[in-house]
Design goal:
The protein is an alpha/beta fold and about 400 residues long. It has three domains: about 150 residues, Rossmann fold, CATH 3.40.50.620; about 140 residues, Argininosuccinate synthetase, chain A, domain 2 (Alpha-Beta Complex), CATH 3.90.1260.10; about 35 residues, Single alpha-helices involved in coiled-coils or other helix-helix interfaces, CATH 1.20.5. The chain is about 40% helix and about 20% strand. It has 13 helices and 14 strands. It has a five-stranded parallel beta sheet, with helices on both faces. Helix 4 crosses helix 5, helix 8 crosses helix 9 and helix 10 runs antiparallel to helix 11. Keywords: Amino-acid biosynthesis, Arginine biosynthesis, ATP-binding, Cytoplasm, Ligase, Nucleotide-binding. It comes from Slackia heliotrinireducens (strain ATCC 29202 / DSM 20476 / NCTC 11029 / RHS 1) (Peptococcus heliotrinreducens). Pathway: Amino-acid biosynthesis; L-arginine biosynthesis; L-arginine from L-ornithine and carbamoyl phosphate: step 2/3.
């Protein structure tokens, strides 16, 4: 008997990937290698999930704590670019997929697997992100997407198939929402949220207070940045992973980071999405503010445009693309002098920058002041205005302005 071919599966332990794990064995006659990655999701027991995969017939399973790598090599780039898709969404799901893909490719090489599989549907963004990342890292590996080809049309169908094939299922009750979470926040969709007229129920939020129930007293927090990366909170030095965890707790306590939006998915469908991103929201606000103090004007203006392009590339699954890597290089160059301290006031759902200081600040008090310390040469203003307005003056004299 010839040896079975192997497939690497990104395995979360939930219903979908549990059914996929067994389906690959039953329908494709493949040996499954499961990889369980912790990128900061809700306190899941990776050892338990790993054992569950083995109990279901996986020939091997790897449980990997990816949180520090995720923070240091992925979220630092997101913060450098102030990554916000459609100028709103902090890209939390799109940021974790390339890291998980990298590990899947590494495991496939380690075990000599012919395939990589995922449990994404044929309607969402993640199928594109996983497959594009895998193709960028090893275009020779064949990708399997069971949910796109099986005939299990509903969750009840999946449940029935799972019971018939001995797949342990987490619950027999339909979950009201679909949730994806990691260090950078939580994404919530489906259920009553599919009607944009419905206000998001309070039970969808789990890491933040409602602004109404947030503390009645504001809290001031100082965040220290070194070359664009947060290195301390209120003077206490810590690594970026710890900063994120601390800021999730502080900002979440004050109701910061709740987002409800109509989002344009890459497949062309508009989707109602809710996000809960306390740390990401607060840190991006602080980082953008410090950049206004430390970056030269034209660099700042250009960066703002490129930030939108960066977010678009990442949202569309192109983390490993040449353009995105070139944009990373630009962002990294801009961060060399983004060093200083930002003071934020947290109160009732708001995170407001109320103070900044930096040893490399381009803000010159004497140039900006209107007081006795003023060193600005006002005599230069007329020549500047004459030259700036010269093209308009010539045009007006020859063609005239059409005023309506």
């Amino acid at each position: 008997m010839s040896e079975k071919k192997k497939v690497v599966l990104a395995y979360s332990g939930g219903l979908d990937t549990s059914v996929v794990l067994k389906w690959l064995q039953v329908e494709k006659n493949l040996d499954v290698i499961a990889i369980c990655g912790n990128v900061g999701q809700d306190d899941e027991d990776l050892d338990f999930i790993k054992q569950k995969a083995l109990d279901m017939g996986a020939i091997a399973a790897d449980a990997v704590d990816m949180r520090e790598e995720y923070a240091d090599k992925y979220l630092t780039k997101a913060l450098a670019a102030n990554g916000l898709y459609e100028n709103k969404y902090p890209l939390l799901s799109a940021l974790s997929r390339p890291l998980l893909s990298k590990y899947m490719v590494d495991v496939a090489h380690k075990h000599g697997a012919d395939y990589i599989a995922h449990g994404c549907t044929g309607k969402g963004n993640d199928q594109v992100r996983f497959e594009t990342s895998i193709k960028a890292l090893d275009p020779k590996i064949e990708i399997l997407a069971p949910v796109r080809e099986w005939d299990l049309l509903t969750r009840d169908d999946e449940m029935d198939w799972a019971v018939a094939h001995g797949v342990p299922v987490p619950t027999t009750k339909k979950k009201p929402y679909s949730v994806d979470d990691n260090l950078w926040g939580r994404a919530i969709e489906c259920g009553v949220l599919e009607d944009p007229w419905n206000e998001p129920p309070e039970d969808i939020w789990t890491i933040s207070n409602s602004p109404e129930n947030a503390p009645d007293v504001p809290e001031y927090v100082e965040i220290t940045f070194k070359e664009g990366v947060p290195t301390a909170v209120n003077g206490e030095e810590m690594n970026f992973l710890s900063v994120i965890n601390k800021m999730n707790a502080i900002a979440g306590n004050h109701g910061v980071g709740r987002l409800d939006m109509i989002e344009d998915r890459m497949i062309g469908v508009k989707s109602r999405e809710c996000y809960e991103t306390p740390a990401a929201t607060a840190l991006i606000i602080a980082h953008k503010a410090l950049e206004t103090m430390c970056l030269e004007r034209e660099t700042l203006f250009t960066k703002l445009n490129l930030e939108h392009q960066w977010a678009h590339e990442v949202y569309f699954g192109k983390w490993f693309s040449p353009l995105k890597q070139a944009l990373d290089a630009f962002m990294a160059e801009t961060q060399r002098f983004v060093t200083g301290v930002v003071k934020i006031k947290f109160y009732k759902g708001n995170a407001t920058v109320v103070g900044m200081k930096s040893d490399v600040s381009l803000y010159d008090f004497c140039l900006a002041s209107y007081g006795a310390e003023d060193t600005f040469d006002r005599s230069a203003a007329k020549g500047f205005i004459d030259l700036t307005s010269l093209p308009i003056s010539v045009w007006a004299g020859v063609q005239g302005a059409k005023v309506e």
